[in-house]
Design brief:
Blueprint: H1 4-8, H2 14-33, H3 39-45, H4 50-53, H5 55-78, H6 80-99, H7 104-115, H8 120-131, H9 134-165, H10 170-189, H11 203-226, H12 231-253, H13 261-264, H14 267-295, H15 298-301, H16 309-315, H17 317-337, H18 339-359, H19 364-392, H20 398-424, H21 436-458, H22 473-485
Helix pairs in contact: 2-8, 2-9, 2-10, 5-6, 5-7, 5-8, 5-11, 5-20, 6-7, 6-8, 6-10, 8-9, 8-20, 9-16, 9-17, 9-19, 11-12, 11-20, 14-19, 14-20, 14-21, 17-18, 17-19, 18-19, 18-21, 19-20, 20-21
Pfam families: MFS_1 (PF07690)
Protein name: MFS transporter
GO molecular function: transmembrane transporter activity
């Protein structure tokens, strides 16, 4: 068996690897949010209707939710670098197809292909853990995790100017160029991980997981327009409720599970995943509804600021900068205070910042201060969640554990967005705009979910960071240790 020294000879400098990974994560997160502010423009450009154009978002959500954990697990088994190139390639191909799409159907298909790129997230975390010096792992994980929130914020900022100066097609051309470059660079410069998870790829449980995820997210994302009591919506919820326990049962009995239920029962893993669900409800809902609030014409409704898409994005720029700064600082803060403390602080600040919006939203400077607090919170919490999950699982399960954590956060975002849409639009003015109380009630709900996230974060057990292990008896001993920590 090759020694660690032999395997690490001639490997790429970790800083080069990190630059490639950041481009991939940043591009994926941009594509999550950049399209949202310009759906009306796409609707007009492709001569479609509002109900159909929302599938541009839904297709991406469904595809990413399915492929994020699957690609992460395949990377654990066949090689993270190899699958990173595949994920980046899917982002590039999907972006190219979206940029030249002649119809809404082609654009929706392109967005589904882009969703495969969700695998970039768990693969990035796994490669960092495998390749970086131990003292650099926490900072690198924090920065790359914060890029998820940063990219979401930047997408809202740049969407308007790009469409105004060029066209909505460039919302896809630019990510295509970035991800294609990153895919080629990853092939040549990102080293292949020596770590491999044993066993085969369990196709059956992958299909079961895909079935309940798609049923749940499709019902949640479309229920508002279909009607929460419609046969289609109710039927999808029933499918999700039936298939989910079947999937858990099948994974628990499998000798080669896609998602190891023993790993999911590790106290640190399941508590952080619960925080991710609650935190995702608040963060992604804020990304969706705060720009709408800013764009509401105050001279008509008596609230809002009548900002354009471009101006509302620029008003959220301080939030994005704060998220990036918090992500950069997260490594040092975690080393000094611990990732658990950062997670509690991030969730608490989210609750306080959202409460500020509920109580004081009549002046621009108030929202600037409050959204900046939210930005700091997002950066701290994203970094802490990634560090806690990565440190809690064996090295051969980093990809799938990170993928499920990201996936659960996405599910939380979908749930939060659906609930908030129902609350905000529960009452309408004669001019069609929501009443102001709809926003305040909706944001109050997010205060509650964020406060619950902070309380759950207090219960997260602290796991000592694991060192790099080579395959063999040490790795087996580590797996036994994790199993013991989960009570098995």
């Amino acid at each position: 068996m090759a020694t660690t020294q032999q395997r690490t000879d001639h490997r790429t400098d970790h800083r080069v690897t990190f630059a490639v990974l950041c481009v991939g994560v940043g591009s994926f997160s941009l594509l999550q949010s950049m399209v949202t502010p310009v759906l009306a423009t796409i609707e007009r450009g492709l001569d479609t209707d509002q109900a159909t154009v929302t599938w541009v978002l839904t297709a991406y959500l469904l595809s990413a939710s399915v492929f994020t954990p699957i690609v992460g697990r395949v990377g654990d088994k066949v090689g993270k670098e190899r699958m990173l190139v595949v994920a980046l390639g899917a982002l590039a191909v999907g972006s190219l197809l979206a940029a030249v799409a002649p119809s809404i159907g082609v654009l929706i298909a392109a967005r589904a292909i882009q969703g495969v790129g969700g695998g970039v997230l768990p693969l990035t975390f796994g490669i960092i853990r495998d390749e970086f010096p131990r003292d650099k792992v926490a900072g690198a994980l924090g920065t790359s995790a914060a890029l998820l929130a940063v990219g979401g914020g930047i997408g809202l900022v740049v969407a308007g100017p790009i469409v105004d100066a060029l066209s909505y097609h460039w919302l896809f051309w630019l990510p295509m160029i970035l991800t294609a470059t990153a895919a080629v660079t990853a092939h040549f410069f990102v080293p292949e991980s020596p770590e491999r998870a044993p066993g085969r790829i369990n196709v059956g449980t992958a299909l079961l997981m895909s079935a309940w995820l798609v049923a749940l997210l499709l019902a949640v994302s479309q229920g508002h327009s279909w009607g929460w009591g419609s046969p289609t919506t109710v039927g999808l919820f029933v499918v999700a409720a039936v298939v989910l326990p079947v999937w858990v049962w099948a994974e628990a009995r499998s000798d080669s599970p896609l998602i190891d239920m023993t790993m999911m029962r590790i106290p640190t893993v399941w508590t952080v995943n619960l925080v991710s669900l609650l935190f995702g409800m608040g963060m992604y809902s804020m990304f969706a509804f705060l720009p709408q609030f800013l764009q509401t014409p105050d001279e008509v409704t008596g609230y809002g600021f009548g900002a354009s898409v471009t101006v509302s994005g620029l008003l959220l720029l301080p939030q994005t900068v704060a998220t990036f700064v918090a992500g950069l600082a997260s490594g040092r803060l975690a080393a000094r205070y611990g990732s658990k403390a950062m997670l509690v602080a991030g969730a608490t600040l989210t609750s306080l910042g959202t409460l500020g919006i509920v109580l004081a939203h009549d002046h621009v400077w108030q929202l600037l201060v409050e959204s900046t607090v939210l930005g700091l919170a997002f950066g701290l919490a994203f970094a802490a969640m990634s560090n806690l999950v990565v440190d809690a699982v064996p090295q051969t399960q980093t990809g799938v554990a990170s993928g499920m954590n990201a996936n659960i956060r996405t599910v939380g975002g979908a749930l939060g967005g659906a609930v908030l849409a129902s609350v905000v639009t529960a009452g309408h003015r004669p001019d069609g705009f929501p009443v102001e109380s709809g926003y305040t009630h909706g944001f109050t709900l997010l205060v509650v979910t964020s406060a619950l996230a902070a309380l759950v974060a207090l219960a997260v057990p602290v796991v000592k960071a694991r060192t790099h292990l080579v395959p063999g008896p040490q790795a087996d001993a580590e797996s036994a240790l994790v199993a013991g920590a989960s009570g098995n």
